[in-house]
Amino acid sequence: MAHTIQIADHDIAFAADENRSVLDNALAAGYDIPYSCRSGICGSCRGKVIAGEVRGGSGVGVLGDEERREGHVLLCQAQACSDLTLAVRDIEKRNPDATKSIKAKVHKLTRAAPDVTIVNLRFPAGTKVRFKAGQYLHARLEDGTVRHYSMANPPQQNDGVELHIRHVAGGRFTAHLAGEMQVGHLLDVTLPFGDFTVRDATDKPMILLASGTGFAPVKSIVEDAIKRKTTRPMTLYWGARKAADVYLADLPAKWAQKYPWFSFVPVLSEGAVPSGDAADGETAGDAASALAGCRTGFVHQAVLDDHASLAGHEVYACGSPAMIQAARQAFVDERGLPRDAFFCDAFVPAVMPDEVFTPA
């Protein structure tokens, strides 16, 4: 059954199928609402129900108790049960030319860690795509399987993309990467997507929080700042189980040496750096040097240890859902971070083995 969704304080209304999420209905109607993970974890798509009823989207563990009492829901999970009036953080008409589907060519494959491959893709000659640092793309295999990967290159390098792909046991894309993908192969990609982008309206210091390959969009964000010659303070806390998982440790270490506005804090949950623990022999020395004296424990705890208050900061977190949820709760509840100053992109494992891509 179709309902009507009205956006408060805007002359915007669109039809909504109750079997689709509010977010999907908005996107289908040609409107962009802030979102990222689409799995009910990051909280980027929260909105407030002014009138009407929804099913789902309660956001337990993401939204605070007071927010839920006030009618806030996660629009990627909420479905309309009646006509709705919603308040959203932002909404704008979608540019139909902003998202492009491209056959990209595999230009380079680099094993950065035992379970991480860096894939460099090139677009066809003359093709460039505008995107923002921190956004992601859809990669589609021939059988229709689609996976989402953050772009690790800065938006100034827009004739191709760099992806950091973790090998997942039993994963379709992992099997393709390990068995079939070679330099010169073509891969269908559609981009850009997501709202995990830096808010430039403020100069508040930024905490960049990454676990594992969550470093990919952070790399794009920092390199974009370098390209634009900004000096906004940034501190990267990169957490991993062991040293090899901080697979490009020498890169942020070099940033920290060169740019006074940037700091790097690596954090290992399984102890100190063993001698020579790096992706390969040639980079072992650089990696060991970059990780010398690294912290141990959980990465969000390192932030708590370093900051008595986060009230004047913004946090950009990317990685595992568990890390993001723990960080959000602790930073807001224990360090006074405004809830609207926590931005995140959760790397959610695919749960639909036969997921099929439909172009946006």
Describe the structure.
- This protein is α/β, with parallel strands linked by helices and 360 residues long.
- It has three domains: 2-93, Beta-grasp domain (Ubiquitin-like (UB roll), Roll), CATH 3.10.20; 100-193, Elongation Factor Tu (Ef-tu), domain 3, CATH 2.40.30.10; 206-346, Rossmann fold (3-Layer(aba) Sandwich).
- It has eight helices and 21 strands.
- The strands form five sheets. It has a six-stranded antiparallel beta sheet. A six-stranded parallel beta sheet has the order 19-18-17-16-20-21, with helices on both faces.
- Helix 5 (250-258) crosses helix 6 (284-291) and helix 7 packs parallel to helix 8.
- The radius of gyration is 21 Å and the shape is globular.
- Mean pLDDT is 89; it is low at 351-360.
